[in-house]
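Key result, reporting period 2: structure in, sequence out.
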């Protein structure tokens, strides 16, 4: 693991003492490990290759769209999965060509579709007859045929948190399995569409084993056979993302298990497959550093108030997500533990990172790290309570660099305008 405890320097990320970053850059600060990103990308690549799959990896930029992160993954050969024009611009700016990028999402605006087509997008994942009509009209107007895969909702339960499950019939995502064949046939008849395959994504943070994946991909394979029997062209299958990571004590499936499941279900089709992993690559590659503002002893409850809050790391408030929390100082690692609630300074009870967590005594000024914060961390931040966005740092071996300076209060005000009737 990229995190280790050094007897003198405390918690290190790769070779860099995190306390040094906290001192020099301040807190709260996100820190990403380039080495971890590379290692995890390569492990996934090796698992897919090892299963004998012809597969492309399209990193889900929504998990972490930092230019530094995207560049590290680009250098490893990653393509991208984007869900907005903004993400497409970000991945292209990091050198990931549109020709290696898939554009997913339930509501692509006409300008976003136009941008994707003008840039030569690899694949647009469409989800409804209405969207297919819109894409066809735009593409025809531009004199091109849009490469469209149909996102199918396989109606399986991925066994994950209700807010991040996507492959059940009641979710807003994808077209119902029963309607997909007819829509695919319809796409082939539209002037602006080149039907190229089918796609699915059943949820995120999947740790319940391979059963849901297996069920979903088996349904896709059956659909591909049906489409082919009807004489419809299918060039590839997009397997989505969702592979979970152990935040606490979950047993997350290994990428080899996913590769084996893809091989077992879709392998017989002789088609290339695509994967859209976000969390599995970026989650374990990042931490959020914070300082203890004060330790407050309530009646029978100890509160550790940090200078990071729900506006920085939203996952605990939004999903009751569990993140490991460690002190950076080596001395605090040896100290006795007692239960504490770790909270942020935002004016909401929901601004709580952990309850009854076994923590040492942490006086004001002590640093802590929230673990596994590389995915769905900084990207979900806001400036609630007029709290500027935290700084972002990348570590690579013995080096580190600020890859996004901390926002200033001045930055927040500079984005605002007053109507002339309120101007002084
Ligand atoms: N592909 C599609 C179409 C998706 O909707 C997603 C994630 C992914 C790929 C990447 O999934 P991953 O491999 O990262 O699980 N904010 C939530 C997670 C939302 C995931 C949304 N879709 C969280 O913090 O847990």
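The corresponding designed sequence is given below.
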């Amino acid at each position: 693991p990229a995190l280790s405890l050094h007897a003198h320097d405390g918690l290190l990320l790769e070779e860099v003492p995190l306390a040094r970053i906290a001192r020099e850059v301040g807190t709260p600060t996100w820190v990403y490990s380039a080495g971890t990103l590379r290692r995890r990308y390569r492990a996934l690549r090796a698992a897919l290759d090892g299963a004998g799959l012809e597969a492309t990896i399209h990193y889900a930029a929504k998990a972490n769209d930092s230019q530094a992160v995207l560049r590290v993954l680009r250098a490893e050969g990653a393509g991208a999965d984007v869900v907005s024009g903004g993400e497409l611009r970000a991945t292209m700016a990091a050198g990931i060509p549109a020709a290696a990028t898939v554009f997913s999402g339930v509501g692509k605006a006409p300008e976003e579709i136009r941008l994707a087509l003008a840039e030569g997008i690899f694949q647009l994942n469409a989800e409804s007859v209405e969207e297919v009509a819109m894409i066809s009209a735009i593409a025809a107007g531009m004199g091109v045929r849009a490469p469209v895969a149909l996102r199918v909702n396989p109606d399986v339960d991925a066994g994950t948190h209700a807010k991040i499950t996507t492959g059940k019939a009641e979710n807003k995502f994808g077209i119902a399995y029963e309607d997909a064949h007819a829509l695919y046939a319809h796409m082939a008849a539209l002037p602006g569409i080149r039907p190229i395959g089918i796609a699915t994504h059943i949820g995120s943070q999947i740790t319940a084993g391979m059963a849901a994946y297996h069920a979903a991909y088996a349904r896709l394979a059956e659909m591909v056979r049906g489409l082919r029997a009807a004489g419809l062209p299918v060039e590839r299958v997009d397997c989505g993302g969702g592979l979970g990571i152990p935040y606490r004590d979950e047993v997350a499936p290994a990428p080899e298990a996913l590769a084996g499941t893809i091989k077992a279900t879709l392998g017989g089709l002789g088609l290339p497959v695509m994967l859209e992993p976000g969390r599995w690559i970026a989650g374990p590659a990042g931490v959020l550093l914070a300082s203890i503002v004060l330790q407050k002893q309530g009646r029978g409850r100890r509160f550790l108030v940090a200078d990071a809050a729900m506006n920085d790391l939203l996952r605990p408030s939004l999903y009751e997500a569990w993140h490991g929390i460690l002190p950076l100082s080596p001395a605090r690692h040896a100290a006795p533990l007692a239960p504490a609630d770790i909270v942020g300074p935002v004016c909401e009870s929901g601004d709580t990172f952990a309850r009854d967590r076994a923590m040492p005594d942490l006086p004001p000024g002590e640093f802590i790290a929230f673990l596994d914060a590389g995915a769905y961390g900084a990207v979900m931040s806001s400036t609630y309570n007029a709290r500027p966005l935290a700084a972002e740092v990348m570590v690579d071996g013995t080096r580190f660099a600020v890859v996004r300076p901390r926002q200033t209060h001045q930055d927040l005000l500079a984005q605002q305008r007053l109507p002339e009737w309120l101007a002084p």
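The chain has a mean pLDDT of 96. The chain has two domains: 3-33+283-414, 34-281. This case is discussed further under Risks and Mitigation.
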